[in-house]
């Protein structure tokens, strides 16, 4: 079976219509169950093995397995089934529409279009009648936009020989590195007192301001001065802040939420140590300063290893389909690629052009998705042969 742009257009459109927004991000959202059920039904005529593995209630990973004849390497092609919410374009998000080469709709680029490309590549392989020696997986997990529980569950049970992570990067690029991150609460404790009694009160918000000033200084003077050659400047920004009870009372507590990155070779403990060093600085000014760090969620960076054979095949197939010699790039954002690589599975990440991710009017290039599906099929033929 040849893969044509109309096949891609039809399947992406059907997937976009199904709400699979992540309930971890938007409580009450339906999650991935309905889209997984649709895909399982779509796969049924192919005769491949389909597994719906519930990771969280009503939220299954979908695994499609085309078994080889034996003795070859196994390849897993990944695209996540969940999306972010769509409150800012509720009337349009689930109604796909075409504008030239682009499909517009929630998840068109992130990541349902890429799931469609993986599925159509699998269909093409099965209908070709040529059996490979190695197994070909398509993994469409839950929760990439949340805590990555789907991919974390997968690597506990399965170990393919290589993984291709599909995300909206644009043809001509292959990601071999990306930053890790931490979502951190910095908690500063003060002491409540009447606003007219400074001898009794300890102002938690004023103390937090000293912490914020020093965090910004670290961002300017350290992170901006040590930019990673692929991944760019280490991510840092404040996100939330809460504290105090009323105008007339010294605030006894202030909580700052931040996002902060880590580069290959670092862990979140490097960032925690830097924040605790800031606490020591503030304590020299204010001996009654009390602060602590609560890491709410952290993920390690991605740094591709053992991927040389896979790179050669990906590069050759991309050049054959598009005429582009791929460039090895990094990302300042995080993706599930790190989880597969950390499990000892050589991993590369690439995909079609897309834009407005996590925002209204999200779009993906249908011609690039079509090329991508053909590239995936070509990679599988060579890698699993």
Total number of strands: 17
Domain tally? 2
Order of helices and strands: HHEEEEEHEHEEEHEEHEEHEHEEEH
At the third CATH level, what is the topology name of the largest domain? Aminopeptidase
Give the CATH class of the largest domain. Alpha Beta
Overall residue-averaged pLDDT value? 97
Rg computed from alpha carbons, rounded to a whole number of angstroms: 24 Å
- Quote the beta fraction: 15-25%
The largest beta-sheet arranges its strands as 1-2-6-3-7-15
- The CATH architecture term of the largest domain is 3-Layer(aba) Sandwich
CATH superfamily placement of the largest domain: Zn peptidases
Which runs of at least 5 residues are low in confidence (pLDDT < 50)? none
* Global shape: elongated
Report the biggest beta sheet as strand number plus sense, adding barrel if it closes.
6 strands, mixed
- Which structural class should the secondary elements be placed in? alpha+beta
Number of distinct helices: 9
Q: Please bin the fraction of helical residues.
A: 25-40%
Can you offer a commentary on this structure?
By secondary structure, this protein is α+β, with helices and mostly antiparallel strands. It has two domains: 5-178 and 301-383, Aminopeptidase (3-Layer(aba) Sandwich), CATH 3.40.630.10; 181-299, Alpha-Beta Plaits (2-Layer Sandwich). It has nine helices and 17 strands. It has helices at 5-16, 33-43, 108-128, 149-157, 204-223, 268-285, 308-322, 337-342, 366-383; strands spanning 49-56, 59-66, 75-78, 97-99, 102-104, 136-140, 162-166, 173-178, 180-189, 236-243, 253-262, 290-299, 302-303, 327-331, 347-350, 354-355, 363-365. A six-stranded mixed sheet has the order 1-2-6-3-7-15. The chain has a four-stranded antiparallel sheet with strand order 4-5-17-16. A hairpin with a 2-residue loop joins strand 4 (97-99) and strand 5. The longest helix has 21 residues, at 108-128. The two termini are 18 Å apart. The model has no long low-confidence stretch (mean pLDDT 97).
């Amino acid at each position: 079976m040849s893969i044509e742009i109309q096949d891609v257009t039809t399947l992406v459109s059907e997937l976009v219509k199904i709400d699979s927004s992540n309930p971890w991000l938007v409580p009450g959202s339906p999650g991935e169950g309905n889209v997984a059920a649709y895909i399982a039904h779509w796969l049924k005529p192919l005769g491949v093995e389909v597994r719906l593995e519930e990771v969280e209630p009503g939220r299954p990973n979908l695994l499609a397995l085309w078994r080889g004849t034996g003795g070859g390497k196994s390849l897993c092609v990944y695209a996540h089934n969940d999306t972010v919410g769509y409150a800012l374009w509720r009337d349009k998000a689930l109604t796909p529409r075409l504008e030239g080469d682009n499909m517009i709709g929630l998840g068109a680029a992130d990541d349902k279009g890429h799931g469609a490309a993986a599925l159509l590549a699998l269909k093409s392989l099965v209908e070709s009648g040529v059996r490979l020696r190695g197994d070909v997986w398509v993994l469409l997990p839950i929760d990439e936009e949340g805590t990555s529980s789907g991919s974390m569950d997968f690597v506990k049970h399965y170990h393919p020989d290589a993984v291709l992570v599909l995300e909206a990067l644009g043809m001509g690029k292959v990601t071999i590195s990306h930053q890790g991150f931490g979502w951190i609460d910095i908690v500063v404790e003060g002491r409540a007192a009447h606003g007219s009694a400074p001898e009794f009160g300890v102002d938690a918000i004023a103390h937090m301001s000293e912490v914020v000033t020093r965090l910004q200084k670290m961002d300017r003077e350290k992170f901006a001065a040590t930019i990673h050659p692929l991944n760019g400047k280490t991510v840092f920004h404040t996100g939330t802040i809460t504290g105090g009870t009323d105008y007339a009372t010294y605030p006894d507590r202030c909580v700052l939420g931040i996002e902060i990155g880590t580069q290959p070779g670092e862990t979140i403990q490097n960032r925690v140590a830097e924040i605790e060093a800031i606490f020591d600085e503030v304590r020299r000014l204010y001996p009654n300063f009390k602060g602590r760090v609560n890491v709410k969620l952290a993920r390690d960076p991605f740094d591709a290893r053992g991927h040389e054979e896979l790179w050669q095949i990906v590069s050759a197939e991309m050049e054959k389909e598009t005429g582009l010699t791929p460039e090895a790039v990094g990302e300042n954002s995080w993706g599930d690629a790190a989880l597969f690589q950390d499990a000892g599975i050589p991993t590369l990440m690439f995909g079609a052009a897309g834009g407005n991710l996590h925002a209204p009017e999200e779009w993906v290039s249908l011609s690039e998705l079509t090329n991508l599906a053909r590239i995936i099929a070509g990679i599988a033929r060579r890698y699993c042969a």
